[in-house]
Amino acid sequence: MEQKVYSVNGKETGTIELSDAVFNIEVSTGSIYHAIRNEAANNRVGTACTKTRSEVNYSNTKPYKQKGTGNARRGDKKSPVAVGGGTIFGPKPRDYSYSLPKKVKRLAMKSLLTLGVQEGRLTVVEDFTSENGKTKDVVAILKAFGVDKERTLIVIGGNDSMLRRAARNIPFVHVQAFDKLSAKELLYGRKILVLKGAASNLNSFYGER
Questions:
Q1: Rounded CA gap, 205 and 106, in Å?
Q2: pTM: predicted TM-score of the whole model, two decimal places
Q3: Which of 65, 70, 103, 154 is the most exposed place for a label (fewest CB within 10 A)?
Q4: Residues 6+ apart with CB under 8 A from 146
Q5: Domain annotation for the chain: domains and CATH numbers
Q6: Which of 191, 16, 39 is nearest to 109 (CA)?
């Protein structure tokens, strides 16, 4: 399939051939769900922690005598039924991350790229960078494509440190390499700017395996 290519000024400069095996497949909503869920789980810190009755710093003495008070029989103040006592089956630090099958992850990425093309959110742009890493360079390009505080993903062909530096001060812009894409950003990004070189890399990276 052919896709239009635009300059950094937002003007059409030509076309590029995008692989149908990557940008024009049947969208798999199930694989997208699993990819999003996997990323969310892998990003969880898992540091929630509560104290059991053996860890609460209280005395072991009985709060009152066994008989004659009219109250129920009580053990120490660390009992889970007491205010300030331990917690029953409370959370403990754990690792929530898990691995997703490669085929599912690849299908999800291709489905998300296809979805971006179908919904008109994906735009191929001539390769650009920021010579001095200034934020205004990226802001000018975003304005040319009508981006106004919309969640935007810029897909690059490699590790462009200057472009990443220029975009890091813009809270709604994310810069990711073609081989380290986030399913969450592809799904929720209102604008996906794919550099021409990155588009060619995506054709081979996801299309030939």
A1: 10
A2: 0.84
A3: 70
A4: 10
A5: 2-28+100-207 (3.40.1370.10), 45-95 (no CATH)
A6: 39
Q: Are 62 and 75 in contact (CB under 8 A)?
A: yes
Residues paired with 156 in a beta bridge: 177
Nearest to 23 by CA among 144, 102, 109, 103: 109
- Encode pLDDT of 134-164 as tens digits: 999 899 999 999 888 899 999 998 888 899 9
Closest CA to 113 of 195, 183, 16, 208: 183
Residue 206: closest CA among 24, 28, 33 = 24
Give the tokens for residue 152.
Answer: 């935007």
- Euclidean distance between CA atoms 163 and 128, whole angstroms: 9
Per-residue pLDDT reduced to its tens digit, 80-138: 988 889 999 999 999 999 999 999 999 999 999 999 999 999 999 999 988 888 999 89
The pairing of strands 173-177 and 152-156 is parallel
Q: Strand 152-156: give its sheet, edge to edge.
A: 12-17, 2-6, 122-125, 191-195, 152-156, 173-177
